[in-house]
Design goal:
about 20% helix; alpha+beta; about 60 residues
Length: about 60
């Protein structure tokens, strides 16, 4: 499973922050983004918190 972490913000813009396999989410240095990625890697449901949007892609 591939995890995609995106930033969606009016000031910073919309961009992909991180993409990688579920077993490497510990590499994400931003704590809120990493926590959401951990949750998505557990159950596969998309999550968002503030400007952070995390989803899964099937590999």
């Amino acid at each position: 499973m591939i995890i995609v972490v995106e930033v969606k913000n009016d000031i910073l813009g919309n961009d992909e922050f991180w993409r990688g396999p579920a077993d490497r989410v510990s590499e994400i240095r931003n704590i809120p983004a990493r926590r959401l990625a951990e949750l998505v890697s557990t159950d596969g449901l998309p999550r968002k918190s503030g400007m952070w949007h995390v989803r899964k892609l099937e590999a």
